[in-house]
Amino acid sequence: MFILPLFLSALVTTAAPAQDRWIAGWTYAPVSSVGPTSPPSPPNPNDVRGPLGPVMVENQTVSQTTIVAAAGDRIRIRLSNLYGAAPIVVGAVTVAVGDAAPIPVAFDGASGLTLPAGAPRLSDPVALPVRALDRVNVSVFYPAPTALPTHRLRQVLRDGDASAEPLAPDAPRMRLGALLTRIEVETEAPTAVVVALGDSITEGTGSLPGGLGGWPERLAARMVDAGRPYAVVNAGIGGNRLLHQGSGPSGLERLDADALAVPGTTCLILLEGINDIGRPTRPEYAHEAVTADDLIAGYRQVLARARAAGIKLVVATIPPFEGANYFSEKGEAIRVATNAWIRTSPEIHGFVDFDAAIRDPANPRRRRPEADSGDRLHPSDAGYQAMAEAIPLDVCD
Length: 397
Hints:
The structure is a single chain. The chain has 2 domains: 134 residues; 208 residues, SGNH hydrolase (Rossmann fold, 3-Layer(aba) Sandwich), CATH 3.40.50. Strand 6 and strand 7 form a beta hairpin. The strands form 6 sheets. A 6-stranded antiparallel β-sheet has the order 7-6-10-3-12-13, with no helix packed on it. The chain is an alpha+beta fold.
């Protein structure tokens, strides 16, 4: 009759295993070709992001450089074929910090894998110590003909299996589709993740290559320099909209996967709306015109879902865009009304005033010349820095 109590006692006194501290240290949102599309723009030979690379690769290695926002002794990577139409064969994957020798990455103990269409894959842990703001190179060898994902970033293309070769810092880069969508870090100390969700102004369009990047990367650096326990990751997609598809799934559609389900997330900073406002000036998007009330309803949907996940929501005001190719007086009125709600709403955890950070005091409908990249829509490096500095470091406390 003493067996049951003794058994229960054993259950109570057995030490619980240590909790993993795997969090997102870097993210990149996958994109699908959905929704209406505009006529393709001619290639710009002077694009600071570099030339467009091929959409297909074969017997080639694609290497990218990321900046992780968290520190730890082990990492693991996540590859995604979420919107692919066919399986992707990966011959080898390696990682390296800076110009150090690359380390092989295994998937269930194997050096390569076949990634099914519609699926992501998380690697085995890699014993690779990283510090916050380290540059981590990830190389993927594609032995067979492969259609790369549609979301592009600056990468290096090398012939053959070059995954075991260090990546030269000055190697020429081109814009190529990326299979890597996340680097996770097993952190040394409790670290919370802040996800920046938005469009090209979040992704960092207009920032110069080789610099810190957009406002999320600059906020990450500020957090690290101040010793704050936050890792800021970027989930921006150029052209993204909050309410409608086009340039990938809408913000509401991708909210769970790209923000709420990201490991370690406790706070979301949302900057979405300018493309919802501007794109309907074009005939192919005219049927998707929005009002300020529509955008506010979208923000409230994000708020409800974030709260259900135990995540704080911070909303950013929409910066000025007079002079951009889709500016209109109607759109400006929508922006002003939306920003008024963001600044005064008691519903959200907080707001950051990107509008005030970069607007021209002499003409609040435009941004300061030094804060503009030249297209009246995307900030310059100085503009992104001003945006990052406008964010209080305790915004997610």
